[in-house]
């Protein structure tokens, strides 16, 4: 689980499951992490996850936005130093909310919606 309930909701949706499955099939279920320089030697393990290379089109990912990876390489990818600094979360996280589903008609369940103050 992530710190973002909307992102967790998206990962549980059928639309994400289909995109993840298509990503794994395109890679013939072989980990593609060595293509990104994550590991020193080619990884030959079975790809089990689709890693987002960018979150710019979250909910509308292009094939090139996703990388089929094994669990170990997926963990390694998330432990790499960030290429860009992200803004610090404010003390009161109700101060702002970044859009997750840009131009998307996906209905977020009421229990995940944050009330405006």
Structure description:
25% of the residues lie in helices and 7% in strands. The chain has 117 residues and is of the alpha+beta class. The protein has a domain at 1-79. The longest helix has 13 residues, at 14-26. The relative contact order is 0.19.
Radius of gyration: 16 Å
Net shape: globular
| Percent in strands | 5-15%
Strand order of the largest sheet: 1-2
Mean pLDDT: 75
Unreliable sequence segments: 84-92, 94-98
What are its keywords?
two-stranded antiparallel ribbon; alpha+beta; globular; 117 residues
Strand and helix map with partners:
Elements: H1 5-12, H2 14-26, E1 49-52, E2 66-69, H3 71-78
Antiparallel strand pairs: 1-2
Short description:
By secondary structure, the chain is of the alpha+beta class.
